Amino acid sequence: MPAELFASLAPTPLAERLRPKTLGDILGQEHLLGPEGPLGRMLAARKLSSAILWGPPGCGKTTIARLLAEQTDLHFEPLSAVFSGVADLRRIFEAARQRRRDGKGTLLFVDEIHRFNRAQQDGFLPYVEDGTVTLVGATTENPSFELNAALLSRCQVLVLKRLDEGALGRLLERAEAALGRKLPIDEGGRQAIFAMADGDGRYLITLAEQLAGLKEKGPVPPARLATLLQKRAPLYDKAQEAHYNLISALHKSLRGSDVDAALYWFARMLDGGEDPKYIARRLVRFAVEDVGMADPNALTQTLAAWDTYDRLGSPEGELAIAQAVIYLGTAPKSNSGYAAFGAAKRAAKEHGSLTPPMHILNAPTKLMKELGYSKGYEYDHNSEDGFSGQNYFPDGMAREEFYRPAERGFEREILKRLEYWKKLRTKKR
After folding, report:
1. Could you give the residue range(s) of every CATH 1.20.272.10 domain in the chain?
2. Burial class (CB in 10 A: 0-12, 13-18, 19+), 286
3. What is the CATH number that goes with domain 241-330?
4. pTM beyond 0.70, yes or no
5. Nearest C-alpha neighbor of 397 from the set 345, 357, 338, 341
6. Domain spanning 29-159: which CATH class is it, in words?
7. I want to staple 389 with a disulfide (CB 3.0 to 4.6 A). Which of 149, 345, 417, 425 is the partner?
8. What tens digit of pLDDT does each residue of 219-233 get?
9. Which DSSP category does 161 fall into?
């Protein structure tokens, strides 16, 4: 018996049976495949250009590539960057060259294209440029970080979306039709497995297949679904784009004084396996950059949260970091100190190596005193109001105002002090 006959006897996963047969069957990617979408326009013109499909798992990247080849009459050549090397690429490119001589084009689909190193990615360039292959790469990682600029310049980056609730609902209906029966869930159960799937269509079908095999009678309560089925692991890579996206979301939520959103992003990062010490370090940075002197206690609070986590660890110490998140979110905000430091650094570079004025230089030796070091210095504590009003900027440099406090929080008081000293300085000149 031929091997193919044996293969036909093996069970086929429901996700494979439900794989779309036409591009019109693909759900949730209308912005790319619709008449006005980039792929829709390419197909209408029967001219497909190289592209990078960037999107989360289970959104249809592989299926789209396969169907694009079918609808443009190109030979479909699949390749996984995980299992392939230089020898495989050489063989594929040579076959594509021969195919082109015979008047047939090749669509080279590279799954997980970001797994190829920079040198391997460079190897695609001549074959993409001369049209030997139409390259369609699939990646879950940000192409800006993972792919060569030269390769990106020759490919259109197309962003696929995670499946929304509407798309997941239609996909679940297809799964029930293929199974030949309704799943034992009510509307609450549907919402529960949508949440478990987390936008991954392939995972939703797997959940449906598992649920159908349980032979449960009547609607299964959502709470029981959580014990019967396994929620998909959250999409989070501590070294990749999700890491930077979520810490950015946390930082900007705090800057916008949205405590609830900040707590949500903090919880998301913990759920993804982020190191709480990294978050604590970023909160310390936020305390000095975005709260600053509007509430100087913010720095104390964030350092205390970091120290508490070091002492208690997880999960107890995470509550201290959560408290710091709440404190920062509700604190008055000011970046005046951050801006002042930046302006001072620019001035330091602009004015070069100007020396301090002679009257504020120390004179530990007789010679230095004879040369005029410290001559004319007024000890502020001996001055009226404890303020001499002397010039402390270098000779030859006009006085500048780097620090301009906001009228928020504690900086209101600082502003009053600065205005007071400004008046005294003007008076004493």
Report:
1. 241-330
2. buried
3. 1.20.272.10
4. no
5. 357
6. alpha beta
7. 425
8. 888 878 877 777 665
9. P
